[in-house]
Amino acid sequence: MNNQKLKLWTGIGMATLLASSGAVADDHKSGHHDDMMTSGSHGGEGGEHHGGEGGERHGGEGGEHHGGEGGENHGGEGGEQHGGEGGEHHGGEGGEQHGGEAGAAFSYFAAGGEGGEGGEGGEGGEGGEAGGSVSAVESDGAYVAMLKMMQGHLMAARELIKSGEVAEGRPHLTHPWIEVYPMAEAGLKHRGQKELGGRLQTLAEKAGQVENWGDINQEFQAAWVAAEEALNSVGGGEPSAATVSKVALSLTKQAVLEYDEALDGEQFVAVHEYQDGRGFVLSARDYLDRHKAVLKKQNKEAWRDVGKALDELQKAWPTAVPPEQPVIPVADLYSAQARLELALAPYLY
User: Fold this and answer.
1) Other C-beta atoms within 10 Å of 127: how many?
2) Which of 66-70, 149-153, 278-282 is predicted with the least confidence, judged by mean pLDDT?
3) Any alpha helices (H) in the chain, and if so which ranges?
4) What is the model's pLDDT at position 43?
5) Which residues fall within 8 angstroms of residue 197, CB to CB, at 6 or more apart?
6) What do you get for the CA distance between the two ends of the chain, in Å?
7) How far apart are CA 154 and CA 36, in angstroms?
8) What CA–CA distance (Å, rounded) separates 15 from 175?
9) Cα–Cα distance between 87 and 163 in angstroms, integer?
């Protein structure tokens, strides 16, 4: 166990270990979050400008322009145009890379990259060369992580709308279609999953009309069921403990990056980023709980450590609407993510 932990610290965990001194958090801020899924700084009030129904404007590298209701432009394969509501132009949500490539949050599935891919079905070649792109066609794990990220967005939307925060919840109904689907599309087609795209598009197009949960419940349930069917399309039965761990780490890593991006000093200025992070952590917990039998069977002690580490990480998101000040400093949250990586180390190596 100690050797496993040392290996993880030396490899994928070292960057987050440094966060205890604030070094990583500072580097992320000064580097404009180059490895984030929402790569780029945020303009407008408090770093984010919302135009129209849930529209956002994000500047910086590979930024996004969300312009209220109207057409949207997604930089997916072939630069296809999607004309639903939400009016968003996506140049790449930093690891989601709407050009079809996945980045930092999915690097656990890149061969030779962060966390490697050797534990997934014993294959070491998924995801391409070290530092290369991750393919939802080639990697079952990356494909599942993308689908669980979609569900994280949907969880955020559902929680907000059901609690009466309808205006806050509407944009999250569009995010699975706009921000994640372009990455997962090839993987879905490869596995014969044609239903999900249309369901997500319908959900996004109706988002601006929602006044209460009843307005969207039917479309939401249809999209959720389609996402579940897409998850079940991965063959081979129960996923390996390594794959389960990497999916959870991809989601929580992105959650931490979103939390970091949401803050300006000691104040949350990009509320939707905070809410995305909360949704991703909820989705990660859901996935771990679904497959706890395979994790407990392999290592009961590690499973207990994982639960404790995830509990500590989740404290950063106490409510759907962010508190006035962060409960956990960013540097401490990067450290909490590192502790979760350590807890999952027995399943990765």
Assistant:
1) 28
2) 66-70
3) 2-8, 14-17, 23-30, 140-162, 166-175, 181-190, 195-206, 217-232, 241-262, 271-290, 292-298, 300-314, 330-348
4) 36
5) 177, 181, 185, 188
6) 10
7) 20
8) 29
9) 26
Q: Which two three-digit tokens encode residue 292? A: 């706890």
Task: Give just the sign of the alpha carbon dihedral 64, 68, 74, 79.
Answer: negative
**In 3-state terms, what secondary structure has residue 267?**
strand
Residue 93 in this model has a pLDDT that exceeds 80: no
The two three-digit tokens of residue 169, written as one number: 């919840």
Q: What secondary structure does DSSP assign to 65-133, as a single string?
A: EE-SSS-EEE-SGGG-EE--TT-EEES--TTS-TTT---GGGGGGSTTSTT-STTSTT-S-TT-STT--
Asked if residues 216 and 207 have their Cβ atoms less than 8 Å apart, the reply is yes
Q: What are the residues whose beta carbons fall under 8 Å from the beta carbon of 125, sequence distance 6 or more?
A: 111, 117
Asked if residue 161 lies in contact with residue 210, where contact means CB atoms within 8 angstroms, the answer is yes
- Between residues 143 and 75, the one the model is more confident about: 143
Cβ–Cβ contacts within 10 Å for residue 265, how many?
8
What's the rounded Cα separation, in Å, for the pair 142 and 68? Answer: 31
**Chain mean pLDDT for the chain:** 75
Nearest to 330, CA basis, from 261, 282, 279, 250: 261
Which pLDDT score, from 0 to 100, does residue 134 have? 86
